[in-house]
Write a structure and sequence with these properties.
Blueprint: H1 5-20, E1 32-34, E2 41-46, E3 52-57, E4 61-66, E5 71-77, E6 82-87, E7 93-98, E8 102-107, E9 113-118, E10 124-129, E11 135-140, E12 146-151, E13 157-162, E14 168-173, E15 178-183, E16 188-192, E17 197-201, E18 208-213, E19 219-224, E20 229-233, E21 238-243, E22 250-255, E23 261-266, E24 271-275, E25 283-285, E26 292-300, E27 303-310, E28 315-319
Antiparallel strand pairs: 1-28, 2-3, 3-4, 4-5, 6-7, 7-8, 8-9, 10-11, 11-12, 12-13, 14-15, 15-16, 16-17, 18-19, 19-20, 20-21, 22-23, 23-24, 24-25, 26-27, 27-28
Length: 325
């Protein structure tokens, strides 16, 4: 008997098994709810690695959560209501905007305040990092109406953009050179911010709240008090789709990581998820009993989740099975 033959056969069997074996997909985590705020939650953002969730609240705090364990990692105190919080794409920074005309930069490893940016003359309602994390854009509210762009490394304001006639509620970058602002003046501006040039997207008939670009940078979604969400091909200014999620104002929108799905929230006390390029009926999540101000997608271990919050003062995370087109 040849002693090497069984070993050779075993090797062949192992190779065949490995060639056809597919690792089982991990089960999504169950729904979670974090009850750490004492007032409205206005903004929610996920860190680039999907580990942390940051929430901004009327209660003068921004909270950072390890959402897998439910642990409150940091409670960041402010002097005014916190209207938005967001992580930089490189994961180094957490920025917050408050009602005391200030923007704060925190180290996203230790969650210690590194720098405060001052220059706005009214509450700051919106902020966004550029894709490279080099620039931070901030949108001013009442008595201000300007968008400022800051050099994150130095804290210096490098550009002030003036076009809107009312409060700026949303800011988003498509690239390091192109950003969008949405305003209570019913318009959306697309800026080549280094030149200060703007194109205006018109169509909404009331306040335009949050604006968000799709992850691939091709599309812009805008949420409005006029009860609609509009999806634009920003490069051409073409309006691609008008969605009316309900008969109530819409406060925020968020594209899924693959840009196929669009989550919408507002006064309806629910989250609606649309396959926005088709006529498919939405998936509805309605486990909240109050207005929803904020929504964001996050992805971890190949699974997609939605996190949202609002008038209940709670932050929820829900696993989402992609709707079938």
């Amino acid at each position: 008997m040849n002693p090497t033959k069984p070993h050779a056969v075993l090797c062949v069997l192992v190779a065949l098994i490995n060639a056809n074996w597919v690792a089982p997909k991990s089960e999504p985590m169950a729904q979670r709810m974090f009850d750490g705020h004492r007032d409205n939650v206005y903004s929610i953002a996920a860190s680039p690695d999907g580990r942390w969730i940051a929430s901004a609240s009327e209660d003068l705090t921004a909270c950072v959560w390890d959402w897998k364990t439910g642990r409150l990692v940091a409670r960041l105190e402010h002097d005014g209501p916190v209207y938005e919080a967001t992580f930089s794409p490189d994961g180094r920074w957490l920025a917050t905007a408050d009602g005391n005309a200030k923007v704060h930069l925190f180290d996203a490893a230790k969650f210690q305040r590194v720098r405060t940016l001052e220059g706005h003359t009214g509450p700051v309602y919106a902020l966004a990092f550029s894709p490279s994390s080099r620039w931070l854009a901030t949108g001013g509210g009442e008595k201000d109406y300007v968008c400022r762009v800051w050099d994150v490394a130095t804290g210096k304001c490098v550009q002030t953009l003036r076009r809107h006639q009312d409060a700026i509620y949303g800011v988003a970058f498509a690239s390091d050179s192109v950003l969008a602002t949405s305003s209570a003046d019913k318009t959306v501006c697309l800026w080549d911010w280094q030149r200060g040039d703007a194109r205006v997207l018109q169509g909404h008939t009331s306040y335009v709240y949050r604006c968000r670009f799709s992850p691939d940078g091709q599309y812009l979604a805008t949420a409005s008090h006029d009860r609609t969400v509009r999806v634009w091909e920003w490069a051409t200014g073409k309006l691609l789709r008008t969605i009316q999620p309900s008969k109530q104002p819409v406060y925020a929108v968020s594209f899924s990581p693959n840009a196929r799905w669009l989550a919408c929230v507002g006064e309806e006390h629910a989250v609606r998820i649309y396959a926005w390029k088709s006529e498919q009926m939405p998936k509805v999540i309605s486990d909240t009993r109050d207005v929803v101000y904020a929504v964001a997608w996050l992805q971890l271990d190949g699974q997609e989740y939605l996190t949202y919050g609002g008038g209940e003062s709670k932050v929820r995370v829900v696993p989402v099975a992609s709707p079938t087109e």
